[in-house]
Amino acid sequence: MAQKNIIVLVSGGGTNLQALIDAESRGELGGGKITCVISSKPGVFALERAAKAGIRTRVIVRKDYPDTAAYSAAMLDAFREEQADLIVQAGFMTILDETICRAYPNKMMNVHPALIPSFCGKGYYGLHVHEAALKKGVKVTGATVHFVTEVCDGGPIILQKAVAVQPGDTPEILQKRVMEQAEWKILPEAVRLFCEEKLSVQDDIVTVKA
Ligand code: GAR
Questions:
Q1: Measured by CB atoms within 10 angstroms of the end CB, which terminus of the chain is less buried, N or C?
Q2: Of 35, 39, 31, 42, which Cα lies nearest the Cα of 2?
Q3: Residue extents of the structural domains in the chain
Q4: CA-to-CA distance for 42 and 93, rounded, in angstroms?
C-alpha cells in the first residue's frame, strides 16, 4: 500500500497533533506519514511540537484573507502543493468552505470533543463544548472523529468514545479527561484505519472493515 501523506491543521496547543506524532513514531498510523502541519495562527505551541518532530510547517492566517472563500482557496493550494492524501483537523478553529470538502470527499477528518450530534455545530468548539455539557448536566460525554462535509460537525461519523462526567467537574477538568480518555485514542485510530484503507462510506454511514 502506498504511503499516505497526512496534513494536520491546527490552531492552538496541539495535544491531538502530539498524539498523532507519537502514534506515527510507534508505527501505529498504518504507514501514514505526517508530512506537513498547517496552522491558522502564528506562534501557537502546535507549531513547536511539529518542528521538534522534524515536520514542515506552514502558517496560513485567516485575517490575511478577505473572506472564507479566499482563505479556503489558499488552503486548497497548499493541500495540492503538499500532495495531501488525508487532511486532519486537530483543534483547527477556522471554518473552511464547501470547495475544500468537495475537493477532498471523505479525505478530511475532524476531532470534536463531544458525542455528536450532542453539543456540536456553530459556536461549539474548545472549552465551550464542555461548558455546555456541564450546563445540561449530562452524565456521559466523549469525543467523535468524523469526515468533514459542508455541514459543520455534520459529516459521517468514523469513531466515538464515551467518557463519564464526574461530580465537581469544571470545563477544564472535563476537557482534559475527554482528551486523555477519548480524543488522543480515537484520532490516531481513525487515521490508522484510513491509511490502511479500512474505512468505507455509503449513504453517509462509515463502515470499518475487519
Ligand atoms: C480539542 O479538544 C479538540 O477536540 C477541540 O479543540 C481542542 C484542541 O486541543 N476542537 C474543536 O472544538 C473543534 N470544533 P489541541 O490543540 O490540544 O489538540
A1: C
A2: 31
A3: 4-208
A4: 13
